[in-house]
Amino acid sequence: MKEILIAGSLALFSSLFATPLLIKALARRGYGQIIRDDGPSAHHTKRGTPTMGGIIIIFSVVVSYLIAHLISGNSVSVSAILVIGLVVALGFIGFLDDYMKISRQNSRGISGKQKIFGQVLVSSIFGYLGLRFADSDGLTPISLQLSTVRDTSITLGVVAVVIWIAFMVTATSNGVNLTDGLDGLATGASVMTFISFILIGVWEFSQSCAVVGATNNCYSVRDPLDLAVLAAAFAGSCTGFLWWNASPARIFMGDTGSLALGGGLAGIAASQRVQLLLIPLGGLFVIITLSVALQVIYFRMTGGKRLFKMAPIQHHFELLGWGEVTIVLRFWIIAGLSVALGLGLFYTQWVAG
Description:
Blueprint: H1 2-28, H2 54-72, H3 78-104, H4 112-130, E1 145-147, E2 151-155, H5 158-179, H6 185-206, H7 209-212, H8 224-245, H9 254-271, H10 278-281, H11 283-301, H12 313-319, H13 324-352
Antiparallel strand pairs: 1-2
């Protein structure tokens, strides 16, 4: 528990006080956000705002996690290291995309196919490695079982697990990327979801089979408490960054941050054996991703008509005249309710036994 507090606090202060330094460094080099020409006109005032702020989020998470273990004297876990590796790799893909947009001075970075290929490759490696490194109890970071609020009796097999994890990580990282369209929206929603993973990790540890004995209601998760420490680092880092990312944003996380955060959410969910629970916990990301899918389907089925004025759906409300802060606050309420639903499902299943 002490490590959770240390990691969260260090990440918060690191992100809070280091972000202004990054803002100045990016501004000196002219690394400013490129705005889409077909987006809401109000967004053009944001052109030139420093981007790639995800660098500081990732840095704060990694450093605070390692320092927390150095202070406590406990060793790092394989589960957390694999998630960190996934986050850094996805952040690098996002960094390439952001850098190409800046260097070309347009809103096109690497192609969509290249981005998807990179995400699938990285997440497949994560899924494969997660099935290895069994501990003394035979538990691996990722289970061969499909998990909802815990592992089920459905065995997927190695190939199916790797494919499923690749889909899960790619979908989540793109979902956070689509959500990151308004100041503070994706960052605030991510904080809530990471906090839920802290609670889940602590509960899984306190009710683990190693602690309470092998009962029908205990949890067999390899490193639940250390994953909670990592989730605390993410929550603290995002909170510190949100101070500067809230409207009017002085820095954007860019694809560097959004792809990394999506990977962190999916990686922790997979490692905590709550894969399908990520749907309600990340409900806002799901809604926004579905709005894009529905827009595309409706556009093709009706020969060019639009279901929304613009997708993702947050921009639809902008074009309806809603203020940016109003949209963000209301969407944060949706995110909070989604997290509450997810935690309620998790606890209800345990009570039902």
